[in-house]
Amino acid sequence: MPENTNAVIEVRSLCKRVKDATGELTILDDIEFDVAAGTSVAIVGASGSGKSTLLGLLAGLDNATSGSVRLLGHDLSALSEDERARLRNGSIGFVFQSFQLMPHLTALENVRLPLELQGGVDAHEATARAGELLERVGLGGRMQHYPKLLSGGEQQRVALARAFVTRPAILFADEPTGSLDAATGHAVIDLMFELNAAHGATLVLVTHDIELARRCARRITIEAGRVVGPGRQGA
User: Fold this and answer.
1) Which phi and psi (to 5°) does residue 234 adopt?
2) How do 66-71 and 218-223 pair as beta strands?
3) What pLDDT is recorded for position 2?
4) Distance between CA 120 and CA 67 in Å, rounded?
5) Rounded to the nearest 10 degrees, what angle do helices 123-136 and 107-118 cross at?
6) What is the Cα Rg of the chain in Å?
7) DSSP string computed for 120-157
8) Are 101 and 93 within 8 A, CB to CB?
9) Taking a C-beta distance cutoff of 8 angstroms, is the pair 69, 14 a contact?
10) How far apart are the first and last CA of the chain?
11) For 2, left (φ over 0), alpha (ψ -120 to 50), or beta?
12) How far apart are the C-alpha atoms of 195 and 186, rounded to whole Å?
């Protein structure tokens, strides 16, 4: 596969195997694709197909058995755990199905946290940026609320604000509507695409929701650990 100079993610011959009671289980096998800057990609497949494992490998949260992932020009296998963490802190945003908010922090503090971990942003600017994003997602009046006092949809909107507060180059989303009812899920997805367009980030999401996948510029379908079909543009 020729080098794509516009790619922010380059995957080559990627395999993931794990030991189990019967020997070795192949989760992903010979995965190859590129993701261009500024596009949106849905990774789809049945439960157990390997799509969430693939997302973890793309983000450097897990190690491949063989093959390579280049993320924003960096070969993840050549980086230490600390170096991968710095790359994520500086350039990557995450949205998870289970929200993963810090329960002892307010909505404002949760959104501000990535900027504090990243460093280089003073406390006043961090608070201002976090507050601006919470206003944008409709939670201006809920900034001092703790997660347990927020609905599921509100918690996911806090998670969206947190994901975008560092102005990431890439947003990874793993089943972002999986814990929400249909109406709330649609509202959150509208917001995610709106924020993504405003920030010009590359969006890579894992979903079993075909309607959501159709909103992306491209779909990559995983079946039994392999990519099937061409990963259609505009599908």
Assistant:
1) 70, 15
2) unpaired
3) 44
4) 34
5) 130
6) 18
7) SS-HHHHHHHHHHHHHHTT-GGGTT--GGGS-HHHHHH
8) no
9) yes
10) 22
11) beta
12) 14
**How sure is the predictor about 188, in pLDDT bands with cuts at 50, 70 and 90?**
confident
Q: How many CB atoms lie within 10 A of CB 104?
A: 9
Give the three-state DSSP class for 92: strand
Could you give the count of Cα atoms lying within 13 Å of 75 in the half-sphere of its Cβ? 7
Strand partners, 221: 44, 228
Distance of alpha carbon 222 from alpha carbon 45, whole angstroms: 5
Element (H, E) at 69: strand 66-71
CB 28 within 8 A of CB 56: no
Q: What share of the chain is helix, strand, coil (3-state, %, to 5)?
A: 40, 30, 35
Q: Which phi and psi (to 5°) does residue 73 adopt? A: 85, 0
DSSP string, 180-203: S-HHHHHHHHHHHHHHHHHHT-EE
Spatial CB neighbours of 223, under 8 Å, sequence gap ≥ 6: 45, 46, 49
Q: How open is the CA angle 160-134-153, to the nearest 5 degrees?
A: 55
CA torsion 198→89→47→191, rounded to 10°?
-20
pTM: 0.88
Q: What is the pLDDT of residues 51-82, one digit of tens each?
A: 999 999 999 999 999 999 999 999 999 999 99
The neighbour count for residue 42, using CB atoms within 10 Å, is 25
Residue the block writes with tokens 């993320």? 71
pLDDT above 50 for 161: yes
Q: Among positive and negative, which fits the CA dihedral 36, 38, 43, 44?
A: negative
